[in-house]
Specification:
Elements lengths: L5 H19 L5 H45 L5 H27 L1
Helix pairs in contact: 1-2, 2-3
Length: about 110
Amino acid sequence: MYSYTKAESRERRKLFVKGLRQSAADCLDPEIRRRIERIDQSAAERGAQELAALHKVQADARHDLAAAKAAERTAPRAERAAAREARKQAEQRVRLAERAVHKAEQS
């Protein structure tokens, strides 16, 4: 997963176009390729950190859901409705976290 900043995207696009022109003229500067690879490497590192953070959020959401389910099962009748709502909110957080992880892994 790559996570480019706006500045990196602009710089990479500019270098790509410059490299495209140079390759058409058959005089490609190796510095352009190195700079693009440096940008890609930093974006890949940032993407890996973001993906790890998303996996942590997903694991925390699953843990919270398990706790909410246990609380719902052990809640007295008077508090069961509130515990059910807490469980439903925890399930929603898990779904959101899973979608975010899936989306990040696809890109």
